[in-house]
Amino acid sequence: MIKENVEKFLGEVPKTNPFGEKITVVAAVKMQTVEAINEAVLAGIEVIGDNHVQEFKEKYEDILGNPKRHFIGHLQTNKVKYLIGKTDLYHSVDRFGLAEELSKRSQKAEITSNILIQINIGNEESKGGFELDEVITAYEHVKNLPNLKVKGLMAMLPFIDDEVELKRLATLMRQAFDELKALDSDIEYLSMGMSGDWKLCVECGSNMIRVGTTLFGARNYN
């Protein structure tokens, strides 16, 4: 079933967004078995995204096919040490303390870590991230930290039914992304869009989407 889901989904996703940028699909593998993840990778998934450090650690050695590894969930500073050198991109850098810890650990390991700055585009109390009007300030602070490279922005749209409002917020994210791109040629990714809203996000200029249930089916929380 997963193989069919992956092949169908990859067939549906356009190769580029309206800005001509390649769209990267990140398979969100929270609570998935190693077997399910490997089936998705063998079916064509090239990037997998973890939400929990413990799951990342437990499954890291057993994933086949050498996909790129992203961390897409909320990250506690005391867990950073388990991911350093094993993670290609951190999506959820939502506060300066986390950026500083990633910098410190990356320096110690003599590597450069790629990060996205998380923006709380809906100003939701339940979500972390910088406010939209803090994008440039956050970028300037983080880009000066050693051994970190800012590669773009990440956002989660609110779970609301108002499509006009969702498009407005997604468009604001794209504008902020373009503003950063004009400052820094390393800015490459706007990670925005999940199983329920990826089409709208791509239409508004996202070039990286994080999908789980579309590929793996509904999660079993038991």
Count of alpha and pi helical runs: 8
* Reported CATH architecture: Alpha-Beta Barrel
Strand content: 15-25%
Order of helices and strands: HEHEHEEHEHEHEHEH
* Count of individual domains: 1
The CATH superfamily is: Alanine racemase
Q: How far is the N terminus from the C terminus?
A: 20 Å
Tell me which oligomeric state these chains represent: single chain
Characterize the main sheet: 8 strands, parallel
- At CATH level 3, the topology is TIM Barrel
Strand order of the largest sheet: 7-6-5-4-3-2-1-8
**DSSP summary, beta strand count:** 8
What's the pLDDT, averaged over the residues? Answer: 96
Architecture blueprint of SSEs:
Blueprint: H1 2-12, E1 24-28, H2 34-42, E2 47-50, H3 53-59, E3 68-71, E4 89-93, H4 96-109, E5 113-119, H5 135-143, E6 148-155, H6 163-183, E7 189-192, H7 198-203, E8 208-211, H8 213-216
Parallel strand pairs: 1-2, 1-8, 2-3, 3-4, 4-5, 5-6, 6-7
Summarize, please.
The protein is of the alpha/beta class.
Protein described:
It is a single chain. This protein has 222 residues and is α/β, with parallel strands linked by helices. It has a single domain (2-216), classed as Alanine racemase (TIM Barrel, Alpha-Beta Barrel). The protein has helices spanning 2-12, 34-42, 53-59, 96-109, 135-143, 163-183, 198-203, 213-216; strands at 24-28, 47-50, 68-71, 89-93, 113-119, 148-155, 189-192, 208-211. The chain has an eight-stranded parallel beta sheet with strand order 7-6-5-4-3-2-1-8. Strand 1 (24-28), helix 2 (34-42) and strand 2 form a beta-alpha-beta unit. The chain is globular, with a radius of gyration of 17 Å. The model has no long low-confidence stretch (mean pLDDT 96).
